[in-house]
Amino acid sequence: MTRFYENWPEKLTEPLWITIGNFDGLHLGHQALLSRLRSLAQAQGAQCGMLTFWPHPRVFFQGIGGPFYLTTKSEKQELLNHSNLDVVITLEFNQAFADLSAEAFFDLLTSRINLQGLLVGENFALGKNRSGTLDVIQQICAERGIQLEIFPPFHLDGEPVSSARIRNALEKGDVEQAARLLGRLYFVRSQVIEGKRLGSKLGFPTANQLALEQKILPKYGVYATYVRWNGERYQGVTSVGVRPTFEESGQPNIETLLLDFTGNIYHEELTVEFAHFIREEIKFANAQELIDQIEQDKIIARRLLSDESYPQSLPSQPQSAQR
Known about the structure:
Blueprint: E1 3-5, E2 12-20, H1 28-43, E3 47-54, H2 57-62, H3 73-80, E4 87-92, H4 95-98, H5 102-112, E5 113-121, H6 134-144, E6 147-151, E7 155-156, E8 159-160, H7 163-171, H8 175-182, E9 186-193, H9 198-202, E10 207-210, E11 221-229, E12 232-241, E13 253-258, E14 269-280, H10 287-304
Parallel strand pairs: 1-4, 2-3, 2-5, 3-4, 5-6
Antiparallel strand pairs: 7-8, 9-10, 9-14, 10-13, 11-12, 11-14, 12-13
């Protein structure tokens, strides 16, 4: 079972191989790196772990207030529960941390864990102004007897898999491509709120969720989705947008029609997994046009969801991809 620490632990005495980074989304590239980390640790009889940060350094330095994250803090922890890591340490990224030199960071790191080895990507750097380049890190590790391995970029379709590439796919509504890069369906989890019951008035009761402020949503439109609630998984039709036919609200809304489901789920937490894009968000001339379109959306969603192509949890290592 993975042990999670919300700050430095007192002292971990067991030999430990770690990786350091943000790991937003825990995509195929991250999964490949973690697979290699587990192999390195196992070969040497050590444990394996991750050192990660919250908020993301880009959010901290650039003051990003809008959507940025592929995974919220709690979502990332849930995914890491499936990663077979022994230890995950999450540190607050603040100015004091940003001002540390690479040497000072390693002083702090080795005072809290028995660091046997470090696995990082080719673009990794740490310390103030990213002054701790790989050359600097190699020298520090050599002086301290710490093994170091540099992990090459993980490619899919001839390009490196990255969080930025997934964000770009979501901005285009290409949730299928996002799923290929993630190795799982992109999901949003938040509480169901009581809305204006517009769906019920049309004969289609829907679950309305407010988007979390910094969580990225797919492009406005209608999607075939899976919905997880109370240990069950349902098919759904999910609209992401501002409901232009009725109100043109400025705040993004996630509205899901669960297929073959009846019940009251107000204030419950739903996980919506985006499988396929159906259509753009449209402003209809009247309610009947919208009703007719929803019936078509239901038919399309059932057809698209007839083939379940993606795993239901974070795989232990990426499949059907190559470096």
